[in-house]
Amino acid sequence: MADGTRSIEEWRVTGMDCGSCAAKVRGAVERLPGVSAVEVTLMAERLRLELDGGQCSRAEVETAVRAVGFGISAQDGPAERVAGRFVLPDAGIAPAAAPAAAAADPAPASRLPGWLASRKGRAVAAAAAALALAWIAELAAGGRIGDWAFALAALVGLVPVARRAAAMARAGMPFTIEMLMTIAALGALAIGAQGEAAVVVFLFALGELLEGMAAGKARDGIRALAALKPATARLAVGPRIREVAADSLAPGHVVQLRPGDRAPADGIVTAGRSGVDQSAVTGESVPVAKGPGDEVLAGSVNADAELRLRVTRAAGESAIDRIVRLVEEAETARAPVQRFIDRFSRWYMPAVVGAAAAAALLPPLLAGADWQTWIYRGLALLLIGCPCALVISVPASIASALSAGARHGLLMKGGAVVEAAARTTLVAFDKTGTLTAGRPQVTDLQPADATAEDLLRLAAAVESGASHPLGKAILAAAEAAGHVLPEAAGAGAIPGRGAFATVEGRVWTVGSPHLAAEAGLLQGAAAERAAGFEAEGKTVAAVFAPDCLAGLIALRDEPRADAAEAVAALKAMGVGAVMLTGDNARTGTAVAGRIGLDCRAGLLPEDKVAAVRDMAARERVLMLGDGINDAPALAAAHVGLAMGSGTDVALETADGALLRDRVGDVAAILRLSRAAMANIRQNVGIALGLKAVFLATTLAGITGLWIAILADTGATVLVTANALRLLRFRPDRGD
């Protein structure tokens, strides 16, 4: 690539176990010319950057990453072995890639069982073997032979660590845990603490292995989502059924789902009726009845009878593919607390080195203390000060929370959303399609200057291209009545107020009673009847031309079954609730009263935005809407959530989505966010608390080098294990 063009490039980087690993990869590539906008995501194992092909090539980026000890491959390619020295622990995420990965790495090490198949596993084995032989030599001969044996054991484990430290120093990163470990071990050898040096090197290798295993466990939630789609599909070609790769499916293909089969793609049922278990995708615990015309999401399990499914989305674009992609990408939307810790860690490590040097030099120089004693304590401080546990404390918790949420139909796009949601004090609900089911029905026809049949026929013709639930309800009523709709031309919309079109030579408008009143067409008995409908909690649409009122159509959209319970749950959490609606005050108040929350009615789309901004000036506002008409209001809130079972808009427009279409899930997402932030506070407390304790005991001479390395690696493992508890969190119950 030498044409000077800028492009977005992406790789999979393996071997990253903690936040400092991601920082090393970032530091290695940021120094390259022509590289900018670097994003390294730990849990998704992804490197993404903007590359100027005239200054730097993909090969140079890959060389820089390998130089600091990590594996790198094309995002869709198999994980690779680095320079013949170690094998990366994880195969490709997609099941279909596993055979290719195996073929790509025929090295003997790749066939080793379990943990020995990784570089870190073999480093532990080598360090353990060397340490065991040193103990045998000490017991058998003792004296100088034992000392030399321990020194050799320390060097066996230290050589690969020192190589990585040197590589990172050459890459402009001298302050790394590998460098601190190298200095501490060599210093221990220099002052005659060979036995402790060997033990510390072994414990460091063991800690790295445990960190890798913990990080792999944290990634399992995302991998489990990706594995929900089967690798193959039963494609129906005429009367024949052929088994094909699921990734080869395209929109329009028809696939067969037998009882027990998992859907290989999103699609619409064309034949058959069956219960479908969507729990793995949306968290819905009860199978949902599906028949012709109903949507089935990839990863759902057909429970009862054969279904035929017409594929609606191409490979890689199904709801579950987008969920996995969004969960992986969410790590780039870092929480403010994580950004603070990242900034803190940049000067923390040099400060630790300075403090360790001061501890080693100042007491002997200023107070005549024993040099060997204080050099030893300074070396221990180097190991205690490593920020690995602190740096991993936030991303591990966020990744676990995002994975747990996705398994329960709660999608949040990153740590920033999690932190903002946890601070929510007020939830603003859209009405239609959110607090209500979004399936209004025509309840009354009130003719004026037309018959009831013409009233419905004209209104349906105007709404023939409608996407709004009220327009769809009018169309459904006309279809149910068997009306033949006249052709409509010149259709348009009056945002938040109605729609118009030319039908049978006249311009007809279907809009709010207020719009008809402004035209001077809603008066007297008609106005009173409209008010009566609204007092009953119904939405009224007036059908009129410039010179006449055809009549009124009343519709009602019932509140969702869990709406009142959801509002009560929010109040129990100390969170307020308000409904925002374009309906008139009478209708809005009637619906809000049944649910149990406040109401702000008569709002046009721009009014909703203004209302949200007004509330956001005083409260931490979460807005829940349908993801289509409420996009501006969702953007104005601190957190915007969309309703919708995996729809494109619901997944792409807002900060998150409630995939199960349950109002009660807004309380669940707040519980999960609060639990995640509590987990982060616990992790930060563990990381800093352990360091503070061992800092004091080391300076007092109570603990030494091997305890110091346990304080670092042990804290990292504890923090990661604590974060993994979120994978078992039940947002619906809060435990």
Average pLDDT metric: 79
The gross shape turns out to be elongated
Helix content: 40-55%
SS-based class: alpha+beta
Oligomer: single chain
Low-confidence spans: pLDDT under 50, at least 5 residues? 77-113
How many domains? 4
Question: Number of helix segments?
Answer: 25
Distance between the termini: 52 Å
Largest sheet features = 7 strands, mixed
For the biggest β-sheet, the strand order reads: 16-28-27-26-17-24-25
Q: Which band does the percent of strand residues land in? A: 15-25%
Tell me the number of strands: 28
> What integer value in Å does the Rg equal?
32 Å
Feature tags:
4 domains, alpha+beta, 7-stranded mixed beta sheet, Alpha-Beta Plaits, Calcium-transporting ATPase, cytoplasmic transduction domain A, 735 residues, elongated, single chain, 25 helices, 28 strands, 6-stranded antiparallel beta sheet
